[in-house]
User: Fold this.
Amino acid sequence: MVDLHVTPVGDVIEHDTSADGECVCGPTDKPVPRGDGSVCWIAIHHSLDGRERPQGETTLTVLLNERHLGEEA
Ligand SMILES: [Zn+2]
Assistant:
């Protein structure tokens, strides 16, 4: 169960951000602690047009995933 979706703006594909949808980009679920002690889950979608925008840790996660995928290909 994901509370928020982070999708690349203007990507070449439509990202599936429905509650139980499976997006083709293989989004990464990431827990983010909230101030009240609960945890918010965000799904980080990956752009499929080869572009990434600097967004701190999010970008690092995306780059690591892409590098990993590249090694397997
Ligand atoms: Zn997606």
Q: What stands out?
A: Residues 57-72 form the longest helix (16 residues). The CA atoms of residues 31 and 37 lie 12 Å apart. The chain has one helix and three strands. The first strand starts at residue 4 and ends at 6.
